[in-house]
Amino acid sequence: MGKIDEAKEILNALQVPEKQQNAMCCCVLLAMAGLVEETPWQDATNEWIRIHDVIAFSNNNYGTTYAENSRETFRKQAMHHFRNAAFIEDNGKATNSPNYHYRLTDEMLKLVQSFGTDRWETKLTSFQTNHDTLVQLYASKRVRRKMPVKINGEDFTFSPGDHNQLQKAIIEEFAPRFAPNSECLYVGDTIEKDLVKNEDKLSELGFTITLHDKMPDVVLYSEEKNWLYFIESVTSVGPMEPKRIKEIEEMTTGVTAGKIYVTAFLDFKTFKKFSEMLAWETEVWIADMPDHMIHLNGDKFLGPRK
Predict the structure, then answer these.
(1) Confidence of residue 106 (pLDDT cuts 50, 70, 90)
(2) Pair 46, 105: CB distance under 8 Å
């Protein structure tokens, strides 16, 4: 087994994401340890070096052809992650300083020096006891970034992002103001498409949904008024334009409840971008101004079209 494969084995044992087990990242580990193909792991060192030195070391000793202008790629794909995992440390200089250097942490140095010896498992266990793996760190970060939201009295989480931030505002800010006591029959998530989908109630109301139909982002139902609110959460695409209204009408030909069409925006700037596309007889709600609605119909305020 060559040094690149052995470096990958070390990174794999440390539960590094697959993207950080590629040849570039393996070369970074070897360069940081000062190991050429013939040098045993026990002779690893942790001298301070620059990304420039890592590139030169890889090209000179492992047949790579990394260009000097690939330093940012090295920084983003390897250095950033290795530092998060406590594999390496920097000398605290500004990142654009010519004196900015990295080296293996003392703990990581001792671990790689034990590779291939009877001390390896013990050192590996000790390292993992003291440090979360990158997989754990990044999974935890993703969980922390999720947005909690209460839907129909139950706790859910939205994935991060502007679209879901707006959907959270629709549930928490729009619904209590303009659809009080309504039930959320449908809401999607950018990752989990059908986060909430009350198929029984939708069917009871007369929906006929096929695999090809695209549900509005949020569907609310007021049993008291027998109104359905079809709400599109718009950050970049998909307002309530005439074509979209027609699609929803075709999906709901069997629905007798009153239908209200709403386009929601995070801010007025985004609304202005789409204002000329919006269908008449629809409503606009802007999260930045949650107490107000823009009504695109002259004869009545919020209410069904027919």
Answers:
(1) confident
(2) yes
